[in-house]
Amino acid sequence: MASTKDWFETVNEAQWRAKKRLPRSVYLALLAASERGLTLSDNVAAFDELGWRPRVADLPGERDLSTTVLGHEISMPLMISPVGVQAVHPEGEVAVARAAAAEGTAMGLSAFGSKPIEEVAEANPLTFLQTYWVGSRDDILARAERGKAAGAKAFILTLDWSFASRRDWGSPPIPEKLDLKTMLKFAPEVIRKPRYLATYLQHRQLPELGVPNIGARDEEAPGFFEAYGKWMQTPPPTWEDLAWLVDQVDLPVVIKGVSRVDDARRSVDIGAAAISVSNHGGNNLDGTPGSIRSLPPIVEAVGDQLEILFDGGIRRGGDAVKAVALGARAVMIGRAYLWGMAANGEQGVKNVLSVMRSGIDEALLGLGRASVHDLTPDDVIAPAGFTRGPGEPAPAALAMAADPTTRQSPPTAHPEG
Ligand SMILES: Cc1cc2nc3c(=O)[nH]c(=O)nc-3n(C[C@H](O)[C@H](O)[C@H](O)COP(=O)(O)O)c2cc1C
User: Fold this and answer.
1) Are strands 107-109 and 127-131 parallel, antiparallel or unpaired?
2) How many angstroms does the Cα of residue 318 sit away from the middle of ligand 1?
3) 80 by DSSP, 3-state: which?
4) By C-alpha distance, which of 301, 231, 229 is closest to 269?
5) What is the DSSP letter of 214?
C-alpha cells in the first residue's frame, strides 16, 4: 500500500518521518552507534549481501508465519527488542507493548526504559524484562523477581556493553533532568519541531528521563545518569555470577549480545534458555562485524541446545526471513520500531510490524515455503567468506569503511542519517 499521511510503506519512510518530526538531539540519540558507525553500517549492509533462491511453481497459497519463543506463540518470527525510548513519545513503552500485543508478538522492555514493568506487562502479557549487570547480584535478582511478579515471561540479560561514548559525528546532549533551565536550553530545538511538542502537550507531560525498572517497585525512579553511573561502577559479571543468576531466577534467561561461538557455548553451560546473537545494534565495540555474519557459526555450534534469537540491522521482513533461514528462531527489532513510534505513536509501531509481516509473507511465498519452520540456509545465497566464525577474515565492508579520507564525517553523513 502506497504511503499516505497516516501510513508509511517502508521502515525507510518511517525513519525519514522520524527525522523530520523529532528534535535533532532525540533523533541522534535513537540513531546511536559508536565511533565511526562501522558496525551499524555493516549490520544493515550484510543483509544486502544475502540473495534469494526463489521458486516459480507449487507456491503455497497460504503461509503460516507463527512460531514460538521460549514456549510462547507469536504470530511471526519477529519481536520488539528492549530499547530505552525516553523522549520519543509520551506513551513510551506502553504504546509499543500495546502495538506488539495487537500484532500478536512479544515485547522486550529495557531496564533503562521509561515505563514500569507493571504497566508494560499489563499492556502486553508476553513481555520479557531486560537488564544490564547493574548493582549487586541481589539487586539484579530482585529486578528479575519484580519482573516475574509483574507477569514478565523471561529475563533478558544484555552483556555486550563497554561504555563507548564517542561518535565522529558528535553525540547528542542528553539532559540530566528536565527542569526549567534545561527546557530553555533545548527550547530552540524543540520549537522547530511543533508536532513533537504538540504530542507531549496533548498528553500534558514532558519527556520522562527516569528509569523506573532499575530499583524496587515503590522506589522513586532514579534518573538515567544516576542509574548509568551505578552501572559504570558495577564490576562486570563473571561466568560464575551469570551461572548463579540463571540458577536463582525463576524465569527463562536470555543472554543478549553474543557474537562469539565460545560465548554461545558458555551460555549453554550455565543453563541459559536462549541467546540473542547481537552487537547491540552497533552501539558497542565499533568494528564488530554485522550481526548476521556471526549467526551461522553459532547456530552450527549450539543451535540444538538453546533457542537462538537474533538482532541487528533488521529493516525489512525479508531480513527476518534471511535470519530465520540461517537458523534464528526469531528476530528482534530496535530502531525500526522507534522510528515508527516517532512517526506516528502506537499506530506507527503497528505500521512497522505490519510492514514487516507483509515482507515476511512475501518472502515465504517467493521462496515457496508454507511455514517459517520450512526455511533452510539453502533459501539464501551467501557470498564466499560471508560468515564470521573463528579464524575468518574481517568483512570487506569494514575494510572499505576504514578509508581515512572519510574520517570525521559531519552528522549528515552518518551511516543511517
Ligand atoms: C537507542 C538505542 C537504545 C538501546 N537500548 C538498549 C537497552 O536498553 N537494552 C538492550 O538490551 N539493548 C538496547 N539497545 C539495543 C537493541 O536492543 C538492539 O540490540 C538493537 O537496536 C538491534 O539493532 P537494530 O536497531 O538495527 O534493530 C538499544 C539500541 C538503540 C538503538
Assistant:
1) parallel
2) 20
3) strand
4) 301
5) S
d(CA 254, CA 251): 9
SS3 content of the chain, % helix, strand, coil (to 5): 45, 15, 40
CA of 266 to the centre of ligand 1 (A): 23
DSSP string, 295-319: HHHHHHHHTTTSEEEEES---SHHH
Please state the atom number of ligand 1 nearest to the C-alpha of residue 314: 27
Q: Give the Cβ contact number of residue 389 at 10 Å.
A: 14
For ligand 1, whether the C-beta of 110 sits within 6 Å is yes
Is 80 exceeded by the pLDDT of residue 273?
yes
Q: Which atom of ligand 1 is nearest to the CA of 110?
A: 8
Q: Are strands 72-74 and 67-69 parallel, antiparallel or unpaired?
A: antiparallel
* Whether pLDDT at 365 is above 50: yes
pTM of the model: 0.92
CB 310, CB 323: distance < 8 Å = yes
- Going by pLDDT thresholds of 50, 70 and 90, the confidence category of residue 344 is very high
Residue 299 has a pLDDT of 98
Q: Nearest to residue 417, comparing CAs of 45, 169, 46?
A: 169
